[in-house]
Amino acid sequence: MEIAVIGGGHGCYAAAASLTENGHNVSLWRRNSEALKKVQNTNSIKLTDYKGTRSIKLKKVSTNLSDVMQGAKLIVLPLPCHTQISLAEQLAPLWQDGQVGYLPPGTFGGYIFAKAAREIGNKSNIIFGETGTLPYLARKQSDDHVRISVYATRLPTGLFPLKDAERGFNVIKKAFPAAEIITDLLDGALMNAGPIIHPPLIIMNAGPLQHFDEWDIHNEGTQIAIRNVTDQLDSERILLRQALNYKAPHFPLKNHYNDDEDEWMYGNSSHQKLTDSGDWREHIDLETHRYMIEDIAHGLTFLCSLGRWINQPMPISEGLLSIGSAIVRSDLYKNGRSLENLGLVKQDFKGLKELLLKGFV
């Protein structure tokens, strides 16, 4: 299958290499030409995983969006959600009829891409899917080398518009066999694990993160007190899902840590593999890191705005969002991924469900 991977982050390089190795024709786009140069010189990415290290030759590597979008059946967008608005504007005229966009994960970004295309008059029939996490636990080792510590085994996927879900999912499934169809795009967005796992880990580890040059939030940073807060935060997410009429499975994050529970998105022993890799012992700037900008400013704002919209109490989410705002000295909700900023806050529940089902008609 012809696939375009958009972006230059850890997940983007992992997707480009893994999808190519699995037999797909992959074109990779990255905005930063200097950072892309090493990959572009050889048209290849070095991949390390449980099989060892090898070089994987891609179909195309480009800084031209139109070049990689042309003819692609599936467009994979494994980018932080704070990049989505500007990228949605760039991609808006380039979407072609029948293409499928996949955001792993998306924080309801599929709606942003679809809306941007429609607003400039692009009426192509595009389907967007979102899942709860990246298909890979991965970290780049250099400008042309990525290591995948864990491959996802389950990717619950919601689609927009829901009326075209089967057609869109069939495309996604060919590239990602671990994908599991759920319902609409909001169902998929509310599977996002980032706003659950990362806010407690960075806020409750703020001291060591600012004291040490490097700190592993998943190893010595994952202590009982932090896990307790994470469990309560995830309970709020699940209660919110239920209040919005989404049914199980809810993929509770506690299953990631406990192999005796139902299999989570990364399968058994994934937390151990993550910490064993050592790739997450890193420097995290609390004011600029994507865990703050993506998972708190956008992810928690999205959860809190939904809670406010339906009058569902979200005290842990609201509290962490407030502390995050204090750390960066800015009102994160004001500029985050809220229903207000999405232009959806005046929608009633029935109207939103109709939009999720039919799309822009």
Q: Would you write up a description of this structure?
A:
This protein has helices spanning 10-21, 33-42, 65-69, 84-91, 109-119, 165-175, 185-189, 194-203, 206-211, 224-243, 254-257, 270-277, 290-293, 295-310, 315-328, 332-335, 339-342, 349-358, and strands at residues 2-6, 25-29, 44-49, 52-57, 60-62, 74-76, 100-103, 127-130, 136-142, 145-151, 155-160, 179-184, 215-216, 281-282. Helix 8 packs antiparallel against helix 10 (224-243), helix 8 (194-203) crosses helix 14 and helix 14 (295-310) runs antiparallel to helix 15. The protein has 2 domains: 2-189, 3-Layer(aba) Sandwich (Rossmann fold), CATH 3.40.50.720; 194-358, Orthogonal Bundle (N-(1-d-carboxylethyl)-l-norvaline Dehydrogenase, domain 2). The chain is of the alpha/beta class. It is globular and about 45 Å long. The strands form 3 sheets. An 8-stranded mixed beta sheet has the order 5-2-1-6-7-8-11-12, with helices on both faces. It has a 4-stranded mixed beta sheet with strand order 4-3-10-9. A two-stranded antiparallel ribbon has the order 13-14.
What is this structure's SSE topology?
Elements: E1 2-6, H1 10-21, E2 25-29, H2 33-42, E3 44-49, E4 52-57, E5 60-62, H3 65-69, E6 74-76, H4 84-91, E7 100-103, H5 109-119, E8 127-130, E9 136-142, E10 145-151, E11 155-160, H6 165-175, E12 179-184, H7 185-189, H8 194-203, H9 206-211, E13 215-216, H10 224-243, H11 254-257, H12 270-277, E14 281-282, H13 290-293, H14 295-310, H15 315-328, H16 332-335, H17 339-342, H18 349-358
Parallel strand pairs: 1-2, 1-6, 2-5, 3-10, 6-7, 7-8, 11-12
Antiparallel strand pairs: 3-4, 8-11, 9-10, 13-14
Helix pairs in contact: 4-5, 8-10, 8-14, 14-15
